[in-house]
Amino acid sequence: MRLARRAVTATVAVVCTTLVASCGLQSGSAVPLAVEPGSIQPVPALEGVSLTVGSKDFTEQLILGYMIEYALSAAGADVRDLTNIQGSNSTHQAMLNGQVDITFEYTGTGWINYLKNEKPIPDATKQFEAVRDADAKNGLVWVNPAPMDNTYALAMSRKVAEETGVKTLSDYAELVKKDPALAQTCLETEFVSRQDGFPGMAATYGFDPAVVPVKTLQTGLIYASTATGGCRFGEVFTTDGRILGLDLQLVEDDKQFFPRYNATVVIRQEVAEKYPEIATVLEPISKILTNEEITKLNAKVDVDGEDPAEVARQWMVDKGFVTL
User: Fold this and answer.
1) Whole-prediction pTM
2) C-alpha–C-alpha distance, residues 117 and 197, integer Å
3) Pairing of the two strands 233-237 and 262-268
4) Which of 12, 42, 127, 202 is 20 to 30 A from 172 (CA-CA)?
5) Class of residue 273 by CB neighbours under 10 A (exposed 0-12, middle 13-18, buried 19+)
6) Nearest Cα to 63, choosing from 9, 140, 131, 141?
7) Mean pLDDT of 32-38
8) What span, in angstroms and rounded, lies between the C-alpha atoms of 64 and 297?
9) First to last CA, the chain
10) What's the CA gap between 166 and 91, in Å, rounded?
11) What is the distance between the alpha carbons of residues 73 and 54, in angstroms, rounded to a whole number?
């Protein structure tokens, strides 16, 4: 499953290896670092309210989870940390079971993985509205979609970009038709066969995927090999910090083939209705979460080796949301 395969980089601790309902997920620990109010001020309705924040177990999700925790702590809530849950399904199940009250989820993951739709909706706003409306019946409230869109992409080194002149997937398709060897591409095993992966991309952009020299690699190896020339093009996720760290160039999806994966705040309905202030507190954070912002933060963890809890807090301080 997409987004559940990322490397575990967390320092925090509650991990399930099977579905949450069957593994005794703990009630959570304290927020890892203290914050004081900044532009987020104490909200009387949230003073002392017990709220559990969850996230999946890869860098970006940890950072996003901590952002929620710091924001609600500054607003006066008694926040419990249940970040670092292993896998998308376990995190989703924790929401449905009432073990997690709030998390950041991706619209594409909700629409395709949880709600079992086969065809994504290309427009980001319409995709958000569709998953919001459909998931309401499950007691989950989707609010505050962020501009950041952690979807699939092809990437290349700066050298390959200059050699080929490729900027868009339409350019890539023309390169395949002209000289397939120049379009040698590294992909994950699943992406090679998924219809929302390489075959579907080829159909949308009008080239024969069978003529492309494809090398199948693990995700982490693709980034490094694309940077060093072992892969001329490589499958990546658009907000991965290694794109910045390795100076990779993204190939623009100019026909909007890949699903939209905008990070969005999801709140259990019971909690959202009782405390509508939560969405208000978190709204300004979502508004400025662009791909550029989150990619820099991911790079601090995955490239520079910093702690995700500290990276998230410093970003919140830099933006004025909280103080130390």
Assistant:
1) 0.85
2) 15
3) unpaired
4) 127
5) exposed
6) 9
7) 96
8) 10
9) 38
10) 38
11) 14
pLDDT tens, 220-255? 899 999 999 999 999 999 999 999 999 999 999 999
Distance CA(237)–CA(230), nearest Å, equals 18
Residue in the block written with tokens 């490729």: 166
The burial class, CB within 10 Å (0-12 / 13-18 / 19+), for 172 is: buried
Is residue 244 within 8 A of residue 303, CB to CB? The reply is yes
The DSSP bridge pattern shows strands 233-237 and 185-187 to be: parallel
Cβ distance 4 to 16 under 8 Å?
no
Q: How many CA atoms lie within 13 A of 9 on its CB side?
A: 23
Taking CA atoms, 114 is separated from 1, 105, 223, in Å, by 11, 11, 28
Q: Are 110 and 104 in contact (CB under 8 A)?
A: no
pLDDT digit string, tens, across residues 43-64? 999 999 999 999 998 899 999 9
- Report the 3 state secondary structure along the chain: CCCCCCCCCCCCCCCCCCCHHHHCCCCCEECCCCCEECCCCCCHHHCCCEEEEECCCCHHHHHHHHHHHHHHHHCCCEEEEECCCCCHHHHHHHHHHCCCCEEEEEHHHHHHHHCCCCCCCCCHHHHHHHHHHHHHHHCEEEEEEEEEECCEEEEECHHHHHHHCCCEHHHHHHHHHHCHHHHCEEECHHHHHCCCCHHHHHHHHCCCHHHCCEEECCHHHHHHHHHHCCCCEEEEECCCHHHHHCCCEEEECCCCCCCCCEEEEEEEHHHHHHCCHHHHHHHHHHHCCCHHHHHHHHHHHHCCCCCHHHHHHHHHHHCCCEEC
Length of the chain equals 324
Report the share of the chain in percent with pLDDT over 90. Answer: 81
Contacting residues for 296 by C-beta, under 8 A, at least 6 apart: 241, 244
Phi then psi for residue 7, to 5 deg, are: -65, 145
Residue 260, class by beta-carbon neighbours within 10 Å (0-12 exposed, 13-18 middle, 19+ buried)?
Answer: buried
Alpha carbons 124 and 133: distance in angstroms, whole number: 14
